[in-house]
């Protein structure tokens, strides 16, 4: 099984990076082939230009075509990011804009959207400092809505899950160790081949 991991946190000492290491270890133990991208380390450009919107896929920059190919080839997609201002960091939102593009990943048809990634296992690991009750009852759970409804709902995902670890700023080392154990259990449960 091939799995694409996208990490979006500029701090190399972040808990998101620790999550990504646990995810990679777990997937390798399960025998997966991994595509891994740290968007900040790679200095991914999140800006979608007008020219790029109308470009044919064959005319896109090679690094962008590589991301699109890896999305298509992977049976699993994993995104790891902090919750900033009710959403993923701009670099990851820009990655979605540029990679999940019309005529490459999905198309509009008279019968609705046709997607090439609806059959993939999608896992989101997010982190935040906002207490869960405020995230749900005051803000309306915007990160969940973005990923589950707006992105993967439109793209027809049949296997979606998101876990949020909070509050990072108030967490202890013991809590973080438990969260990393939980991460490994989630990967084993969702990405083991039957």
Characterization of this structure:
- The chain has 7 helices and 7 strands; from the N terminus they run βαβααβαβββααβα.
- The chain is of the alpha/beta class and 194 residues long.
- The protein has one domain (2-191): Flavodoxin domain (Rossmann fold), CATH 3.40.50.360.
- The strands form 2 sheets. A 5-stranded parallel β-sheet has the order 2-1-3-6-7, sandwiched between helices. A two-stranded antiparallel ribbon has the order 4-5.
- α1 (15-29) packs parallel to α7.
- It is globular.
What is the count of helical runs? 7
Any idea of the CATH class?
Alpha Beta
Q: What portion of residues belong to β-strands?
A: 15-25%
User: Could you give a short account of the major beta sheet?
Assistant: 5 strands, parallel
Q: Could you say how many structural domains there are in total?
A: 1
Count of β-strands: 7
CATH superfamily: Flavodoxin domain
Here the CATH topology equals Rossmann fold
- Strand order within the widest sheet? 2-1-3-6-7
The CATH architecture can be given as 3-Layer(aba) Sandwich
What is the global morphology?
globular
Order of helices and strands: EHEHHEHEEEHHEH
Key phrases:
alpha/beta; 22% strand; globular; single chain; two-stranded antiparallel sheet; Rossmann fold; 194 residues
